[in-house]
# Entry
Amino acid sequence: MLGLLAAHLLLATLIEPLPLQPFWTGPTPRVIAHRGGRGLWPENTLYAFQHVAALSADVLEMDLRRTADGDIVALHDEAVARTTD
# Structure
């Protein structure tokens, strides 16, 4: 454990922090559409993403997962039970 901590501290001293990106240094507050506007539309859906884009939100946050067969889907939960019938 001590070796891992020492390695982490050594790396922390060698790595320079990334400069702030222009987006994060601009005016605030920012509108972030969590899961594509959860509560307004079905979350993590193309329908929600299109509607939140029309509202000119600053950030579209979505959750991506890989399915058992290797496809990538926009889904927050590990299973579809909460968001489907």
The beta strands are 32-33, 59-60, 64-66, 72-74. The radius of gyration is 19 Å.
